Amino acid sequence: MSLIDFYNAVLNENGKPSDFPVSIEHIDFKKGDVITDYDEVENFVYFINNGLVELSIISYTSEKIIDFFFENEMVASLTSFLLQSASDVKLTALLDCRLERVNYSDLMHAYDHDLGMNKFGRKIMEGAYIRKSNREKALLTKTAEEVYTEMFEKQPKYISYIPVNKIAKYLGIHPESLSRIRKKLNS
């Protein structure tokens, strides 16, 4: 799926690529490449055509994984992008990635001058808020096994590509605990 296809699906439209109100740049990242690093200002919002992206943050003791983003999803260091300030998170390609990106100034101009893009942006922000809220609720109310099971059900295609230590960091548990959970679920 392309960003334009995604845009049309979100808005339930059938617009042509020539109708898209911002320019899109295609960019590839290799597995392990940093897309946006700590302290960089995020100048782009990305749509994942193919691949897997990790969002991480440094805590007082170690690096923590906040989330994973998959094919046909939008990703950015959102706070940095919106405030045009230094990023407190890092985006890393966990697999080779093919992304489409839109730069900040083009998007802000489109928000001011194109009702469809404004509506699209609102819907994407609503989705990002719901995703964040659901993640916080899961951390407070679900066991690591429940969160892992949901993750596996939602993204079975990609779960095997995420190293065990990264899934464990995401769940806030030790890799040995995740191995026990996986063993229990596979028996």
Integer tally of domains: 2
Q: Helix content range of the residues, please?
A: 40-55%
Query: Mean pLDDT across all residues, rounded?
Result: 93
Number of helices in the DSSP assignment: 8
Beta-strand content estimate: 15-25%
**Name of the CATH homologous superfamily of the largest domain:** Jelly Rolls
Question: From the 3D coordinates, which CATH architecture of the largest domain would you assign?
Answer: Sandwich
Strand numbers in spatial order across the main sheet? 1-8-3-6
Name of the CATH first level of the largest domain: Mainly Beta
Helix and strand pattern: HEEEEEEHEEHHHHHH
Shape: globular
End-to-end C-alpha gap: 36 Å
What does this structure look like?
The chain has helices spanning 3-11, 78-83, 104-113, 115-141, 144-154, 156-159, 164-171, 175-186; strands spanning 25-29, 34-36, 44-50, 52-58, 63-70, 74-75, 89-93, 97-103. With 187 residues, the protein is of the alpha+beta class. The chain folds into 2 domains: 1-116, Jelly Rolls (Sandwich), CATH 2.60.120.10; 134-187. The chain has a 4-stranded antiparallel beta sheet with strand order 1-8-3-6. Strand 4 (52-58) and strand 5 (63-70) form a beta hairpin. Helix 3 packs across helix 4, helix 5 (144-154) packs across helix 8 and helix 7 (164-171) packs across helix 8 (175-186). The model has no long low-confidence stretch (mean pLDDT 93).
Question: How would you sum up this structure in a few lines?
Answer:
This protein is α+β, with helices and mostly antiparallel strands. 47% of the residues lie in helices and 24% in strands.
